[in-house]
Amino acid sequence: MSTVFKSKINKMLNKAEDPSETLEYSYTKQMELLQNVKKGIADVVTSKKRLQMQSQKLQQQVVKLDTQARQALAQGQEDLARQALERKQFAQGELQGLDGQVAELETQQQALVDKEQKLRGKIDQFRTKKEVIKAQYSAAEASVKISEAATGVGEEMADIGLAMQRATDKTEDMRARAGAMDELEASGAFDDQFAIGSGGDDIDRQLHELTSGSQVDDDLAKMKAELGQGSGPAPAGELGAGASEPAPTQEKPAGSCGSPPTASAACLTRRR
């Protein structure tokens, strides 16, 4: 889990890292280090100056004690002269210690100065390389973007390409649909949708028209036949299809009326 987590973090950092920013940060840290070295040199020089000032005071004190010892001895005060010489000897010991410390600080100062000069040279070289690398990175980045834009493999260009492809597909669909609508309208497919009845294709319509025409012809012939029978008495010996010969009827006296189905108009008038 730790390895996976570190690999994910490393991948995220690599993706988010900007070489230009990294170089600038490294240059800033080196400049801070150079400033720290300069500050160390200044501290060493300050300490050396303090020791040198103390050394000068001790030298003056040595000279003063030597003079006082001589004066005391000249006046016959040997004990006082001895004390002055003892202090002189102690001051000389302190002076020697200070001289050693001053020499050590001078050595440290020179070493720091040498390091500061070397570090400054490296920083100058790094600054030059930094600017060159930044320029090269900017040029490479621009070249990659131009290549991606030219080939259409970049993320933005890919999105634009997908949008154009979707627009083209929709346009082709609309054109195909418009062509289909024109073709259906020309074939009369939309007329059947508004016709009364169950509709049907072109063959159904033709068959229906043929059947309707035959029915009309049959009805017309039948009507002609009926009109022809009603215009006069039918010829003797001719019977309609399916009709039987009528039975003979008995003669009735004049002035009598038969049953209502066979009564004449005069009989019906007399009955009323």
Structure notes:
The protein has 272 residues and is an all-alpha fold. The protein has a domain at 2-130. The protein has helices spanning 2-16, 19-74, 78-151, 155-187, 189-193, 202-230, 265-271. Helix 2 (19-74) packs antiparallel against helix 3 (78-151). The longest helix has 74 residues, at 78-151. Residues 230-272 have low confidence and may be disordered.
Structure described in brief:
With 272 residues, the protein is mainly α. The protein is 81% helix and 0% strand.
The helix tally amounts to 7
Mean of all residue-level pLDDT scores: 75
Give helix % range.
over 70%
Main β-sheet description:
none
Query: How would the global form be characterised?
Result: rod-shaped
- Helix/strand class: mainly alpha
Distance between the termini: 124 Å
- How much strand? under 5%
DSSP strand count: 0
Would you identify the regions where 5 or more consecutive residues have pLDDT less than 50?
230-272
Secondary-structure element pattern, one letter each: HHHHHHH
Radius of gyration: 68 Å
Q: What layout of secondary structure does this protein have?
A:
Blueprint: H1 2-16, H2 19-74, H3 78-151, H4 155-187, H5 189-193, H6 202-230, H7 265-271
Helix pairs in contact: 2-3
Question: What keywords describe this structure?
Answer:
272 residues, mainly alpha, 0% strand, 81% helix
